[in-house]
From TrEMBL:
Chain residue ranges for the region called Disordered: 1-32
Lineage: Eukaryota, Fungi, Dikarya, Ascomycota, Pezizomycotina
Protein name per its UniProtKB record: DUF7582 domain-containing protein
InterPro entries according to UniProt: DUF7582
Organism: Podospora comata
Superkingdom field: Eukaryota
Amino acid sequence: MGQQYSRLRQRRNADRLRDLAPRRTSGHEEPLPNLDYQTLWNALNNVAAYIDRHGGNVTVIAVGGAVNTIHLRSRNATHDVDFFNNQLTVNDYELLIRGARDAVRRDRRLTEEWFNNRTIFFIPQERRNELTEETLLIHEVIFRAAGLTVLAAPWQYSFSCKVDRLSGGGLNSARSYDLDDAVQYIHRYLLQRCIRQVNKSTVRGWFVHYQLQWTHANETVIARVNAAYRAKFHVGYDVIV
């Protein structure tokens, strides 16, 4: 009986994942970044208000452009809020889906896919719960209102994903903003730990941990990150050594 319930819950959660994953269409691999800080803030407030009205309280973990636009303010806009949380219940998913749709009804600038959890499919299944627990422990809040809290994913995870994409890994090609994102993420990692530099062996360890492939191309990208970091923050040393 318990095993049957567990399998049923997994199937329902998988259905919720599909409901919140964006539907890709030909010619729309890189949507225009049209959601600025205020638009995103208002939209998240609308989701939070919907969840709160229905007696819920949900925490999600954001990655990518939403973190840069809302929290770091290093981008003017993004095209969606990409999130995960491996501990969400079926009811949590239902509230998020309905809240996101309610936000669209209130602001027609939002597309059907503005709030999605497609990123979960890029996280190895055996790492999803661990990454969720780590984020909840660090608890770096980028948005909070009654009903909804949005946390930033661990900086070393976000940094590793950016370096991986810049190196040609993964399914998506590198974006024009990826290098600056990587610099922002490693900067936040260093600030969080009150250190100035991190060993390259540590970075390679992140890749192993998150099951990303380290190649010769990564060495070139790390050199680009060091150069961009020196230029952006006016330091005379490499941050990855």
